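Bug #77: duplicate submission created two jobs. Keeping one. Sequence:
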Amino acid sequence: MFSLKSSRRTVARTAAVALAGAACAAMMSGSAEAIVNGKDSTQRYPSMVSIPVTGVDNPAFQGFCGGSLIDSKWVLTAAHCVDPRLVTLDGTVRIGSERKKSGGTVRSIAKTVSHPGYKNGEDAGPNRDDVALIRLNRPVSEKPVRIADKPGRPGTPTRILGFGTIDDTASDPTKWVFPNRLQELDTRRGTVSECAPGYASSTRLCTISQAPKAMACHGDSGGPQLQRGRKGRWELVGVTSGPGVPGVRCSEGPGLYTSAPAYTGWIHKTMNRNG
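Kept job's structure:
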């Protein structure tokens, strides 16, 4: 939902959800809260991945995308987070840490594979088939998250995670402020009609915050949306992709998440083909 747009096109609103921002008021008051009105993580998320990125047309921008460990050597993220037209990867990822730049396990990126149907929405609409896989150079010991069999029905409680900007007022990426501590926000599955017409679909999940003026933002892209499985464990249901309504600040609208279950076939096929 929050990819970096080329400066020739404008800076992306789409860099948003995997880089969640905290409420402006919270930031101004000195609060540590982020994911625009999220809060510091309340538990360990061993499958959480941070992915350093640099803007292609604005190298001064050095930020992050998120991802989810789904296998000992595979990370699921948003395709716009590995799009060479938008960002340059620094070549590493950090797995399983509540801190953006320390802890967990660091691995080199061996390969990236974007969905063949991926299309960056720019200002004309949502990103499409916004999903990609990163193969690590070596397996890790952190526990992968299971991809849910299917998303819960509208109203189902979910949770989003990210290291995104805590300020959704700045349009200049160099002015974005990123928290060091992982942020979480309780959300719910929205109905198709709660996002803009043509945005939500069977492969794109409309997501609504359960806190006022809160949502993922720049730098949360690629990060996870989780729901509880039958045994109460977190399962992966969505990948942060972009805003659910165009033209509003992150904290003022719904989020749009690529449905991980909808791409399970492509995910397994890609992993099998690429070792």
